[in-house]
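Q: My hope is that you can spare some time for a protein that puzzles me. Underneath my words sits a plain record pairing an amino acid chain with its backbone structure tokens. Those tokens are not coordinates but codes from a learned vocabulary of shapes. Thank you; the sequence and its tokens follow:
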Amino acid sequence: MPVARMLRQVVGQMLGRPACGCWTSAPLARFLGTSPRQIPADANFYSSSFSGTDQPRVLITGGLGQLGVGLANFLRKRFGKDNVILSDIRKPPDHIFHGGPFIYSDILDYKNLREIVVNNRITWLFHYSALLSAIGEANVSLARAVNITGLHNVLDVAAEHNLRLFVPSTIGAFGPTSPRNPTPDICIQRPRTIYGVSKVHAELMGEYYHYRYGLDFRCLRYPGIISADSQPGGGTTDYAVQIFHDAVKNGKFECNLKSSTRLPMMYIDDCLRATLEVMEAPAESLSMRTYNVNAMSFTPEDLAQELLKHIPEFQITYNVDSVRQAIADSWPMNFDDSSARKDWGWKHDFDLPELVTTMLNFHGSDTRVAQAN
């Protein structure tokens, strides 16, 4: 069934209207997304402020992806285990289920999302549900539903219940006509993937809700994120994660990008800290609602050379994937994140040498590292 017709039927059932696709003369302009909630033309929502002693009640959507579990653990150390709820549509592994609150949440089900926010007194929402770049190109209709329709539901719930909302964006929000080295916060974007288009849509919709309804929307454009304790999730920059798995296990790696493909990158610890810092930043310090953040920029060849310092027998070969290469060639080579550093004091901790040492230690190559040193 086409997504549009399916959504019309769902909304029709919720509103007690015919599901045949024959809409009545109700004021459709007042509907946002596919939510069964009407927002009057003069609506004005303002996010609640928190005192220094208040602890936010946090919901993370898409929690079983590359970043969700790490973010939950990070925030639980700060705000307490029971104040951070991880959610997804998939069944969690035992260690995640027993590590803190976990619930089922489908962002395409507006009623379910709204009930979760109300029943758990949520005040902060981190919206991580999305199909990434390469996966999204393989299933555009699903990416459109999850990345765009799901976002609309999240925006509506956040505005209605005065939440502070974080939605991550990406280097994929830029396109081949964007300045690439460096790429500033504000410039022409025009991405050519459904993932990138949906992220530009998220940035603009979030800013619109902020200025129109007072929603406390905050967004960071992430570079490629490298995480030691998660598997690659279908992104174009995931070679920089897989290379460590293969280097430790096999001593070799086949890269699907050209050796000279330079992209901005960041270790996950820096990513999580940046996310919390922008959420805790005073609203008056934010000159914009979407910021670039960066730590380092390197090529596969740069990364391989750093690995060779620790694993002298490591070998890298190249088998270029034309789809992923075309995506990478349209993305920034380096991020200008001077606004984040100026406005709320962003500063990264991990450069390439620290990144490689940390990743290899995590993956159990302590012996090789010690021998190299």
Observations:
- The chain is about 40% helix and 15% strand.
- Residues 1-36, 38-52, 366-373 have pLDDT under 50 and may be disordered.
- The radius of gyration is 21 Å.
